[in-house]
Write a structure and sequence with these properties.
The protein has 33 helices and no strands. The chain is an all-alpha fold and 546 residues long.
């Protein structure tokens, strides 16, 4: 393959020895973080069979994310030597493979050392041993390695500002630790400060422009600041690269960037690899209205530990409360949202304020909902989901004109096809004096009988209440026709609305009067099967003739 890419002019030079192939230096490859190259060099120059070469090959496998292969190699080496460092490395590989109890059993067998303390610290977190975690926290020293371990724990427990404070403190004295800028970028990303995240990230990318982790985080920032297409473009050079470190993370993020495309093929395999995979698969199920599957997936998380888990638990309980008419699920949803929104770390974040708005929404306290939504409105000007919730809160507080404008600006098909959307928009039209718009909306959207009846009931009652009698009469008339069993309330509503429309016509009030006056009223009454309709028609005609 090498010769085939060299032109004929150079073949003579190659044969004469003028072109010399040089073998890269192993130490240089390690310093450049080219672990694939280093491992390949070991395999072809030393076969990787002697003890030292095997340790270096295992080191490369570990840094390439091949933890299972590294674990097997370290186990083989451990049989040849009971060196505590090898045992420690076995425990660390087990930790990265999620074998937390096994890792704890192995590491307990070796004497205490600083690395052991840090590993035990993280194992306590993974095994939810809070007492042990606090005890080991007190054992951490004021050295870089221990402080980095502490910062990572702050990050894992969603205490992002605390992690930032630790990283910044270290960078004051250790500016050469440029990789900490990636960690800062991750923390700022979690706090929704995407611009600041990118600034920190750029510092690292200037020196290491090929960093997969940095490129991936940059794509996530682009996703938040722009859109999925822009985010995917950042990964264009990595998408088709198989077997690279971080390949699973890239596959996962591409599903998100592509709005769930390929979710069922990619995300289930990554649930135990990438924590966010479970959450994003749950979101996919929620968007597909597969609530049972979302509940099953989130039900496996017995105790949420990070805000995103609390939030999704709250969303699932909200949908179950609506579906099952369950007050217990409603109460659980309120508690989950309030826990996030009221926490010291989340109360001033966008998700935190959204959670408080959601909690008050479920409590029916819409004035409070608007307090929180108004505070983050500028971040969601063109967000249809936000605007839909915002419009509902506006309508619930009597701001029908603003609510109507918000609803008319929504273009997301999934939202505008919801019966609730049409119901709220109809009410806004009516209370803004546009009852005919509400009627036209019914005519355009009336597909399912149950939904049609609910919409007609809303139109008839609201129009009657505000004196828009002609549209109320048409709605009551349609309800009477759609009812399988005669409902006296519909006839009484039709009768009252027709009389109101007649009064509006006689007094020449535009509101409530039909376009063709008495002719429309008489035609509507003649279509009724109720015997009282004939009596009313005769009275109207006789009065007119007088």
């Amino acid at each position: 393959m090498i010769l085939s890419r060299i032109s004929r002019d150079h073949l003579g030079n190659l044969k004469s020895g003028n072109l010399r192939l040089t073998v890269p230096d192993f130490d240089d490859l390690i310093m450049k973080r080219d672990y694939t190259g280093a491992r390949t060099l070991l395999e072809y120059t030393n076969s990787g069979n002697d003890g030292l070469s095997k340790q270096w090959r295992t080191f490369c496998n570990f840094h390439l994310g091949n933890y299972k292969e590294a674990l097997n190699d370290y186990r083989d080496l451990k049989t040849q030597s009971e060196d505590s460092i090898l045992i420690m490395n076995v425990a660390i590989c087990m930790f990265y493979l999620g074998m937390y109890n096994d890792s704890l059993e192995v590491v307990d067998a070796i004497p205490n050392n600083p690395l052991k303390v840090r590993l035990l610290f993280h194992l306590a977190h993974k095994l939810n041993d809070e007492d042990r975690l606090l005890e080991l926290h007190g054992s951490l020293r004021d050295i870089v390695e221990d402080q980095l371990s502490l910062a990572s724990m702050h990050y894992l427990r969603a205490h992002y500002q605390d992690a930032i404070d630790v990283y910044k403190k270290i960078l004051l004295d250790k500016k050469e630790l440029i990789a900490l800028n990636i960690y800062l970028g991750l923390c700022y990303y979690k706090l929704d400060y995407y611009d600041i995240s990118q600034e920190a990230l750029d510092t690292y990318l200037l020196k290491y422009p090929d960093s997969i982790i940095a490129i991936n985080l940059k794509s996530c920032n682009r996703f938040r600041l722009a859109n999925g297409r822009a985010a995917e473009n950042e990964l264009k050079n990595l998408i088709r690269t198989e077997g690279i470190f971080g390949a699973d993370l890239i596959k996962h993020n591409l599903v998100v960037f592509r709005n769930g495309e390929g979710a069922l093929q990619i995300l289930p395999k990554l649930i135990d690899v990438i924590p966010e995979a479970r959450l994003n698969l749950t979101i996919y199920y929620l968007r597909s209205v597969e609530i049972a599957k979302a509940q099953e997936l989130m039900g496996l998380i017995l105790k949420p530990t990070v805000p995103s888990e609390y939030i999704l638990k709250g969303v699932v309980h909200t949908l179950l409360a609506q579906k099952l008419d369950s007050r217990e699920h409603l109460k659980n949803a309120q508690q989950y949202f309030q826990l996030v929104g009221g926490s010291a770390t989340e109360c001033d974040t966008i998700p935190g304020r959204q959670c408080m708005a959601s909690a008050f929404f479920l409590y029916g306290q819409f004035e409070e909902v608007l307090v929180y939504l108004n505070s983050i409105r500028s971040f969601f000007v063109n967000d249809d989901v936000f605007n839909y919730n915002y419009a509902q809160a506006k309508a619930a507080t009597g701001n029908y004109k603003e609510a109507m404008e918000l609803l008319l600006g929504i273009s997301e098909p999934y939202i505008i096809q919801q019966p609730s959307f049409n119901m709220i928009l109809s009410k806004c039209h009516i209370l803004c004096g546009h009852s005919e718009e509400a009627w036209n909306l019914y005519l355009a959207k009336s597909s399912r009988k149950n939904e049609s009846i609910m919409m007609l009931q809303l139109i008839s009652i609201e129009c009657y209440r505000v004196g828009q009698y002609w549209v109320a009469a048409k709605a009551f008339d349609m309800l009477e026709k759609l009812s399988l069993d005669p409902n006296p309330e519909y006839w009484e509503g039709l009768r009252g609305a027709c009389i109101g429309a007649l009064y509006s016509t006689i007094t020449e009030r535009n509101i409530g009067a039909p376009p063709n006056g008495l002719t429309d009223i008489l035609d509507l009454l003649r279509q009724s099967s109720n015997p009282q309709a004939d009596t009313i028609i005769r009275v109207i005609i006789r009065r007119l003739s007088d």
